[in-house]
Amino acid sequence: MADIHELSHVPGDDGPGDSVRRPDPDAPAIAVRDLHKSFGDVEVLKGIDFHVDHGQVVCVIGPSGSGKSTLLRCVNRLEEPSSGQILVEGIDITDPETNLDAVRARIGMVFQQFNLFPHMTVLRNLTIAQQRSLKRDRAEADRIARANLAKVGLADREDAYPAHLSGGQQQRVAIARALSMEPDMMLFDEPTSALDPELVGDVSRS
Ligand SMILES: Nc1ncnc2c1ncn2[C@@H]1O[C@H](COP(=O)(O)OP(=O)(O)O)[C@@H](O)[C@H]1O
Ligand SMILES: [Mg+2]
Considering only CA atoms, which residue is closest to atom 26 of ligand 1? Predict the structure, then answer.
């Protein structure tokens, strides 16, 4: 796993060369403290506190427009919080010194709008970040991608382009793509919104 840049030093442990901090295995996977987020005059998140332990599944429910997507996007800093603290495995990602890329590499995200690359085949959508970010070779990336496509029931669609797939199929490609990065934790924004009820259970289990 990638090293994380040191943000806050431990008292009495600040010798030279001690500037790299690793994730704290005893810290919650995600801890959010007094998180506020406003868009202009509109305060969407008004002091959110919660934590998620390793292995725990937490669902956030609420009406449309209540801030669920904003909250998830703050957790990997796709959205800049107005104030508050977000710790990922003990590392404060609101600290400007944090190496965000290293933290984000451990957090998978499936967006509400899927965000597939429209000009790439399904298989390429699953392999490009594996090769570019994780430096996997083509053969390994293909193997992992195909295993995850099989998991979501799309083994026979690897050569299709996103526009030729149904909404539910696109959503499953997005899930398989996130799984292919083998992240420590996953953020799903409405992960089953476009799926048939029969498929919801399959996705939740994988
Ligand atoms: N980039 C943005 N600029 C301005 N307002 C936004 C932006 N993103 C979200 N909002 C507003 O924040 C509120 C919460 O949105 P969102 O987090 O998408 O809600 P949910 O996912 O629960 O439906 C909405 O009122 C939305 O209009
Ligand atoms: Mg939303």
Answer: 65
Smallest-distance ligand from the CA of 74: 1
**Does 44 contact ligand 1 (Cβ within 6 A)?**
yes
Q: Which of 35, 39, 61, 74 to mutate to test the pocket of ligand 1 (most atoms within 8 A of CB)?
A: 39
Do you know the residue count of the chain? 206
Helix axes 138-151, 122-132, angle to 10 degrees: 130
Question: Can you read off the two tokens belonging to residue 159?
Answer: 């050569």
The model carries a pTM of 0.80
CA dihedral defined by 55, 59, 165, 196, rounded to 10 degrees? 110
Instruction: Specify which residues 38 forms β-bridges with.
Output: 43
* 178, 110 contact by CB (below 8 A): yes
Closest CA to 175 of 132, 125, 139: 125
Closest protein CA for atom 2 of ligand 1: 39
* Ligand 2 geometric centre to CA of 173 (Å): 19
- 103 HSE (CA, 13 A, CB side): 28
Q: Which ligand has its closest atom nearest to the C-alpha of 67?
A: 1
What would the pLDDT profile of 145-198 be if each residue is shown by its tens digit?
Answer: 999 999 999 999 999 999 999 988 999 999 999 999 999 999 999 876 766 666
CA-closest residue to ligand 1 atom 10:
39
Render pLDDT for 75-116 as a digit per residue (tens, 0 to 9): 989 999 999 999 999 999 988 888 888 888 889 988 888 889
Tokens 């934790």 correspond to 185
